[in-house]
């Protein structure tokens, strides 16, 4: 807060406190010499004997207001609230937040600590750990993958067995810890412009059994082998080391229609999975990984955990 705003707050607080004190003092003066309430009337009389009086507040009520004013002055001396004055206690909302966070982290670490360093398929054998992971997933992952983990356009479905970067426990853990960066470059110029994009699109559709023009698909096969096969393989089955998807199945991250595929070839794709180790730490990442693993291996994990 700069000096100008600080002075504004100070003046406003002083005016309010002094104004309240003045109002109470004026009200207190409206008493007789004996200290009792004077019986002044407003001049309004009904039915001959029903008179409206204008009496001051009772003494006990006024004293409560004086106590409130004294309390407010003490509060402003102890806590910040008087402009830039920090208060004699040194309290700040940031310090309180940090203290509460440290206390909460200690409790969570006690609950999560026994799963530290475990492989996610081992963690998945513990129902409590999977429940922890589900809540962490809802907080940190559902924004992209959905609350049911079925994903959306551009965000993978985690409930099937199709994995861009590999579906082993170590590969999933690496994805969560370090993140992933897709690198599908614009390829229109490399494969022959609009004609090449059309032909390769037709060939890619034919790989997964989608009906496509045979002549265009055949022409696109040679272009695919010369450029696209470097990542997706000659057979189009992809490469988990590069995050290159399998083009021969029926799983499509962005869509399988002609326009969507040709757009991806023409403009490229730059999907990004952020690294979560810096965000939630190694142990919590393993709990999330255990939950993700359980979505496709839940029955297997439960069977192994059963004596």
Automatic annotation (TrEMBL):
Protein residues bound to heme c 2: 184, 228, 231-232
Quaternary structure and partners: Component of the cbb3-type cytochrome c oxidase.
Keyword set, alphabetical order: Cell inner membrane, Cell membrane, Electron transport, Heme, Hydrogen ion transport, Ion transport, Iron, Membrane, Metal-binding, Oxidoreductase, Repeat, Respiratory chain, Transmembrane, Transmembrane helix, Transport
Subcellular location as annotated: Cell inner membrane
Family of the protein in this entry: Belongs to the CcoP / FixP family.
Location of the Cytochrome c domain: 128-208, 215-296
Protein name, entry field: Cbb3-type cytochrome c oxidase subunit
An individual GO BP term: oxidative phosphorylation
Cofactor binding summary note: Binds 2 heme C groups per subunit.
């Amino acid at each position: 807060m700069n000096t100008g705003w600080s002075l504004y707050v100070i003046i406003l607080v002083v005016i309010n406190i002094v104004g309240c004190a003045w109002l109470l003092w004026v009200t207190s003066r409206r008493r007789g010499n004996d200290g009792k309430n004077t019986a002044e009337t407003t001049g309004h009389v009904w039915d001959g004997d029903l008179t409206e009086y204008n009496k001051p507040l009772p003494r006990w009520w006024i004293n409560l207001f004086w106590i409130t004013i004294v309390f407010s002055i003490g509060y402003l001396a102890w806590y910040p609230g008087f402009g830039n004055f920090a208060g004699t206690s040194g309290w700040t909302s940031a310090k309180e937040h940090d203290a509460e966070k440290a206390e909460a982290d200690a409790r969570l670490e006690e609950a999560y600590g026994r799963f530290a360093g475990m492989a996610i398929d081992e963690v998945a054998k513990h129902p409590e750990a999977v429940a922890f992971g589900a809540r962490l997933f809802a907080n940190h992952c559902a924004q992209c993958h959905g609350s049911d983990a079925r994903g959306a356009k551009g965000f993978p479905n985690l409930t099937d067995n199709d994995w861009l970067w590999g579906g082993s426990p170590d590969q999933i853990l690496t994805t969560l810890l370090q993140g992933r960066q897709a690198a599908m470059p614009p390829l229109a110029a490399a494969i022959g412009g609009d004609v090449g994009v059309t032909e390769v699109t037709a060939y890619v559709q034919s790989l997964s059994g989608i009906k496509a023009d045979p002549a265009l698909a055949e022409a696109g096969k040679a272009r695919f082998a010369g450029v696209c096969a470097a990542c997706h393989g000659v057979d189009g089955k992809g490469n988990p080391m590069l995050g290159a998807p399998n083009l021969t199945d029926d799983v499509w991250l962005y869509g399988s229609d002609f326009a969507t595929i040709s757009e991806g070839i023409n403009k490229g794709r730059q999907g990004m999975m952020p690294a979560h180790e810096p965000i939630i730490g190694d142990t919590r990442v393993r709990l999330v990984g255990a939950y993700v693993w359980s979505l496709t291996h839940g029955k297997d994990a439960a069977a192994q955990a059963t004596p």
